[in-house]
Amino acid sequence: MHAVKDKVVIVTGASEGIGRALAMQLSAAGARLMLAARNQQRLQALAEQLPGEAEVCPCDVAQPQQCQQLVAQTLVHFGRLDILVNNAGITMWSRFDDSDDLEVFERLMRVNYLGAVYLTHAALPALKQSRGSVVAVASLAGLTGVPCRSGYAASKHAMVGFFDSLRIELKDQGVDVTVICPDFVVSQIHKRAIGADGQPLGQSPMQESKIMTAEQCAQLCLTAIGNRDRLLITSLRGKLGRWLRLLAPGLIDRIADRAIRQRH
Ligand SMILES: NC(=O)c1ccc[n+]([C@@H]2O[C@H](COP(=O)([O-])OP(=O)(O)OC[C@H]3O[C@@H](n4cnc5c(N)ncnc54)[C@H](OP(=O)(O)O)[C@@H]3O)[C@@H](O)[C@H]2O)c1
């Protein structure tokens, strides 16, 4: 895609799932990439597979200093930053009244919400200079409640509130903010979801044949990023639900409940 050609892009959570698929599509479209996540080996393997220029930087987004380091390394290597994709994220799978370990709620906020805040703060001076854009991969759970995902939904609502506010602040400085709200996507996140005992589930509870692939999601993300769109919702039920919620909020609750019970 023309709009991302030669742009310097940081993608967090690039070692798996949506971030990995997006990195592949950005690279094919001519972007110059800084790939970030905690697993350096997986990042390196991806970088070697990409058609375009790509560097890797191990980074735990929950650590502000590592976020600063990621931006510094990007500027040393590429000399500029055009697009920051805050994609790294984790999820949970547990009713609140079954959750014994409240540390999970803190962890979800630190990675999903504060991680994006720390990194965006570190990247803003460079993004202002390039009149670039910030992308926040939130979730449909950032727009509505979802059972068994209360802490995750809270972290994604926080992301949406933060980035919607930031967009207004940056309006006159040429920096755009794109919020992406995917519906369910096949990725590692479901089997890594933190269960009631504070441990990863180990296997995905989703009906993966019935949900979007990471490649399909990345394709939609690429278009939204290229167009510097304000908001991307990846499913029809998500798009309709946004409006229906105003008229019939109880119906939206039932749809969210059914989606979790039916696992797609
Ligand atoms: N899949 C879905 O159904 C879905 C739906 C809506 C929204 N989303 C959102 O999409 C984003 C990507 O998720 P995904 O589904 O692609 O999940 P995934 O396959 O589990 O990938 C998550 C990525 O985030 C990285 N990550 C996790 N914790 C991190 C940390 N502390 N610091 C840096 N990187 C970290 C992981 O790499 P390391 O483990 O190597 O760090 C991995 O690369 C998330 O924000 C998620 O909430 C997903």
Write the layout of secondary structure elements.
Layout: E1 8-12, H1 17-28, E2 32-37, H2 40-49, E3 54-58, H3 64-78, E4 83-86, H4 103-130, E5 133-137, H5 150-169, E6 176-181, H6 214-227, E7 231-233, H7 236-247, H8 249-262
Parallel strand pairs: 1-2, 1-4, 2-3, 4-5, 5-6, 6-7
Helix pairs in contact: 1-6, 3-4, 4-5, 7-8
The structure holds NADP nicotinamide-adenine-dinucleotide phosphate.
NADP nicotinamide-adenine-dinucleotide phosphate (NAP) binds at residues 12-19, 37-39, 59-62, 87-91, 111, 137, 139, 182, 184-185, 187-189, 192.
CATH superfamily: NAD(P)-binding Rossmann-like Domain
Strand order of the largest sheet: 3-2-1-4-5-6-7
Q: According to CATH, what is the class?
A: Alpha Beta
Which residue ranges are poorly predicted, with pLDDT under 50 across at least 5 consecutive positions? none
End-to-end distance = 31 Å
Q: Helix fraction?
A: 40-55%
SSE-based structural type: alpha/beta
SSE series: EHEHEHEHEHEHEHH
| CATH architecture field | 3-Layer(aba) Sandwich
Shape label: globular
Mean pLDDT across the residues is 97
If you consult CATH, what is the topology?
A: Rossmann fold
Tell me the strand percentage band: 5-15%
Q: Any idea what the radius of gyration is?
A: 18 Å
Ligand set? NADP nicotinamide-adenine-dinucleotide phosphate
Number of strands: 7
Q: Write down the domain tally.
A: 1
The profile of the biggest β sheet is: 7 strands, parallel
